[in-house]
Amino acid sequence: MVEYDRSVIQEFAQRLYRQAKTVIVAFTLIGVIAGAALGFGLANSIRDSSPTIVVSFCAILVGAIACWAGVQRSFTLRLHAQTALCQMMIESNTGIAARGGGSATSSKVSGAFVPS
Questions:
Q1: pLDDT tens across 34-49, in order?
Q2: How far is the C-alpha of 22 from the C-alpha of 31, rounded, in Å?
Q3: What is d(CA 17, CA 68) in angstroms, rounded to the nearest whole number?
């Protein structure tokens, strides 16, 4: 049988936070590169326009959209990390209460008393 190991949850949360720090930069960089490629292709199909302006505009536009998507993904990753840490703390507090120690025995949870 597998035993509960809080260090696994702690490591999981740390990895999610590290990933959340890098995801915004990665999404933005990929967006700028994809936008530049799109702009280059668009500039080649429109012969009368200045390719530098079209490539720059597309790179900035797609990069900004990708940055926004990266911010949303980063928030989701941090939320998952906080959820895991919250579950770990709940287990820790209820474990103390179940063993008969600590102040968690008289705390209210959703309007109901936790029996001692």
A1: 999 999 999 888 877 7
A2: 14
A3: 18
Angle at the Cα of 27 from the Cα atoms of 26 and 29, rounded to 5 degrees: 65
Beta bridge partners of 109: 112
Whether the Cβ atoms of residue 68 and residue 31 lie closer than 8 Å to each other: no
**In angstroms, rounded to a whole number, what is the distance separating the alpha carbons of residues 49 and 43?**
7
Partners of 112 in the β-ladder: 109
Extended strands (E) in the chain: 108-109, 112-113
pTM attached to this predicted model: 0.72
Q: What residues have CB less than 8 Å from 44, skipping those under 6 apart? A: 51
Residue partners of 103: CB distance under 8 A and separation at least 6: none
Handedness of CA 100, 103, 106, 110 (dihedral sign): negative
Instruction: Give pLDDT tens digits for 76-98.
Output: 999 999 999 999 999 888 876 66
Contact 32, 67 (CB under 8 A): no
